[in-house]
Amino acid sequence: MTDSEPVQPLGGEGQGAGAIRRMLLALVLFGTIGLTLELLLLEHFESIWQWIPLVVLGTGFASGIAVAVRPAHLTIRIFQGLMVLLIGTALLGLYLHYDGNVEFEREMDASAQGLDLLWRSLRGATPALAPGAMVQIGLLGLILAYRHPALHHQEPNS
């Protein structure tokens, strides 16, 4: 067996761990679909910055399907990379949402500062903490891939 051949999802880790991996993968897939639909319903595609989460969620979903169909070493590594990218995208989104709200609040009231500005910005028109949902999906994906049997598969000696 070569490094690119798929490994059985339950290989060497028992049925309990395999079942948990399948449930985590289902959560990642449903989460990426749900957030993508939410962003589309909100028409979150007015600027290039707003397209970034749609693209990352879409590639994360595709990668999750690849893990379900062919859980090989390379597939899991790509999935891990996309989950890290999902988390990074979420952090960027948190910043952009908050920063946009701060800018808006300062336009509305130039005297706003400190905790008052923070509170107003967190509760602003743009949901400042909404991108955090992508952090959760990324973390679930990384937990799924942690010590995945496909990452530790060794080619048998001939």
Gyration radius (Cα, Å) is 20 Å
DSSP helical segment count: 5
- How far apart are the termini? 10 Å
The residue fraction in helices comes out at 55-70%
Largest sheet: none
Going by helix content, strand content and strand pairing, the class is mainly alpha
Mass-distribution shape: elongated
Low-confidence segments, given as residue ranges, are none
Strand content: under 5%
The total beta strand count reads: 0
Mean pLDDT over the residues:
90
Helices and strands, in order, run as: HHHHH
Number of domains: 1
How would you portray this structure in words?
The chain is mainly alpha-helical and 158 residues long. It has one domain. It is built from 5 helices and no strands. The chain starts with 13 loop residues before the first helix and ends in a 13-residue tail after the last helix.
Summarize the structure.
This protein has 158 residues and is an all-alpha fold. The chain has one domain.
Which helices and strands, and how do they pair?
Blueprint: H1 14-41, H2 48-69, H3 73-108, H4 114-122, H5 132-145
Helix pairs in contact: 1-2, 1-5, 2-3, 3-4, 3-5
